[in-house]
């Protein structure tokens, strides 16, 4: 009890009644109550850090992960905060419209979203999803070609390509034409908000990148472009 009380920063309050505590203190007590028992194999956390201040969130998240490695309990953590999910979990389950659309590591969810919702939900900004037609190793977007690293055939239905903003390059030369609307400097990098054939396109540029008015084209790293049919990832064939 003392160890858990210290972990949640409540060791000085352990002899007080819960009704006299603040809302975030009650949340921390609820969090600790499930961890003091030694006869459990799994713990379910349902939005456990909702009303806790941001600094304490980071601290508790780190300590929860440490306890998980120390005691080996299975921890099921329900959250709508993607940062919590990606920093806390070994495996993440993403649900959409009442069904599981992907189970994987944070890296798998980022690099290979199996559903367009996963691509949109994981990442900030989320994955760019662009209507296209795909034949072989070429995707066509309003007549402009995008090279792919895999070959596809006989795709029918709603065909789209997905590429994360981190793998989009803003250039002056070849590529798809874009209209840059604004540039947001968030410190670690710049987020370029642009229009691509009337559809929003987000680009993440490294900090220090000079964005000039004549940079009005984008290119994609072929190995980072995913192909989707009716929102589901298609594997294709190695070229």
Report on the architecture of this protein.
This protein is α+β, with helices and mostly antiparallel strands. It folds into 2 domains: about 1-90, P-loop containing nucleotide triphosphate hydrolases (Rossmann fold, 3-Layer(aba) Sandwich); about 130-239, Beta Barrel (OB fold (Dihydrolipoamide Acetyltransferase, E2P)), CATH 2.40.50. Helices cover about 25% and strands about 40% of the residues. The protein has a 4-stranded antiparallel sheet with strand order 5-8-15-16. A 3-stranded antiparallel sheet has the order 6-7-17, with no helix packed on it. Strands 9-14-10 form a 3-stranded antiparallel sheet, with no helix packed on it. A hairpin with a 2-residue loop joins strand 6 (about 135-140) and strand 7. The longest helix has 18 residues, at about 55-70. The termini are far apart. Belongs to the ABC transporter superfamily. It holds the Pfam family OB_MalK. One of its GO terms (molecular function) is ATP binding. This is ABC transporter ATP-binding protein. Keywords: ATP-binding, Nucleotide-binding.
Q: List the secondary-structure elements in sequence, H or E.
A: HHEHEHEEHHEEEEEEEEEEEEE
Range of helix content: 10-25%
Radius of gyration: 23 Å
Distance from N terminus to C terminus (CA atoms, Å) equals: 59 Å
Percent of sequence in beta strands? 35-45%
Low-confidence stretches: none
- The overall number of domains is 2
Order the strands across the largest sheet as they lie in space: 5-8-15-16
DSSP strand tally: 17
Main CATH class of the largest domain: Mainly Beta
Number of helices: 6
What is the CATH topology classification name of the largest domain?
OB fold (Dihydrolipoamide Acetyltransferase, E2P)
CATH H-level superfamily title of the largest domain: Nucleic acid-binding proteins
Mean pLDDT: 88
Largest sheet: 4 strands, antiparallel
What is the 3D form? elongated
